[in-house]
Amino acid sequence: MAIEIRERYRDVVRDRWPVSVDPQPDELLSSWLHRLALANGIAPRSFASALGLGEGMWSPRLDLQLPGEAAALLADRTNVRQETISAMAMTEPALTPLLLPLRENVHRNRSSWMQYCPLCLASDEAPYFRRRWRLASRISCSAHGCGLRDRCPACRTAIVSFDQVELVPQHFCARCGFDLRAAPKAGVNAAARRLERAIADICRVESATDSAATIDVVSRVLRAPVVADIGLGGTLTNLSTAARIRCFNQLAAKRLDWLVTHEDAAVAHRRRIILAAGGHDELIARFADFLGKHQTRPRSMCPPQPCAGLADVLTAYLRVAGDRTTSKRHRRLRVPQP
Ligand SMILES: [Zn+2]
Ligand SMILES: [Zn+2]
């Protein structure tokens, strides 16, 4: 009997990789894969062949499309559940157009695929890359207030941890070895950060509600460089982080009509309400959640007039969000009229 147990144990050890790595909050799949590879004594580039994947940007490609069999294999070999692994990928269709395109070699002023906050990396026990850093609409770190970076400040190459051939953690540049935690702090003014926040809040609520409004707001955000009159490639996802920070600085000085206007008065009004609630994370989350649930009701149950519908939604929402703190916060908010 004891022999049988030992045999089973050996099978488990053979099937599982020796070390499992827990995903961190908001960790991007590729970041977790690189940490997992190193923990098991394999450099990221060699790990790609161990998984039967091609060369180049193998892990960023998995971020965009994670086949079910790959997620199942990773779950099999680690202690991490398949759903948790799939949730680290960036496969939500609504915000896909805002993802920075995969580019290994970058030219001046052009975007690279990944951004980072040096101070976040410095404060991590095991430095890792966040999912939100993949979005072109993100330019700063909400925790540290500094601008994000998208290159190694020493050799100016993009983040290429997927190509690392040595057993070196991913916060060291894979080309020159510079410690990205020591990158100089990039400045962003407060107004630009408020605009970034407003865009994130509107996208969050719209993607929980209706797909036409999400497509609309995403295309407005992508056209931001045109509105700011920054003539470097037209689309936000094409611009380097430094160029997007300049773009947001320009836009922050303008009215936000370019972002909130919509032919449906109810949508435009909803966006103005979201702007007024800006910075109240819990309130925005509850609002998105409530509208998301409301949206699933049959169409015949929705009030016929868009403005009356919104008023109903907000009234009901305020009733639902009966939490004392939230209610107090909400009463303090000035809601602009359409
Ligand atoms: Zn940070
Ligand atoms: Zn470098």
Would you give an account of this structure?
By secondary structure, this protein is mainly alpha-helical. Among the domains are: 2-94, no CATH class; 192-238 and 255-332, no CATH class. It is 48% helix and 0% strand. It is globular. The model is unreliable at 1-13 and 296-338 (pLDDT under 50). The protein binds zinc ion (2 copies). One zinc ion binds next to loops.
Hey, roughly how much beta strand do the residues contain?
under 5%
Assembly classification: single chain
Give start-end ranges of low-pLDDT stretches: 1-13, 296-338
Order of helices and strands: HHHHHHHHHHHHHHHH
Largest sheet: none
Radius of gyration based on Cα positions = 23 Å
Alpha carbon gap, first and last residue: 76 Å
List ligands, each type once: zinc ion
Task: Please tally the β strands and state the result.
Answer: 0
State mean pLDDT (0 to 100 scale): 82
- The proportion of residues forming helix, as a percent range, comes to 40-55%
- What is the count of DSSP helices, taking H or I runs of 4+ residues? 16
SSE blueprint:
Blueprint lengths: L1 H14 L13 H11 L4 H7 L7 H7 L3 H10 L4 H6 L30 H6 L66 H19 L2 H12 L1 H4 L13 H12 L4 H4 L4 H12 L4 H15 L10 H15 L3 H9 L6
The structure holds zinc ion (ZN) (2 copies).
Provide a short characterization of the protein structure.
By secondary structure, this protein is mainly alpha-helical. 48% of the residues lie in helices and 0% in strands.
Key features?
mainly alpha; 338 residues; disordered N terminus; single chain; binds zinc ion; 16 helices
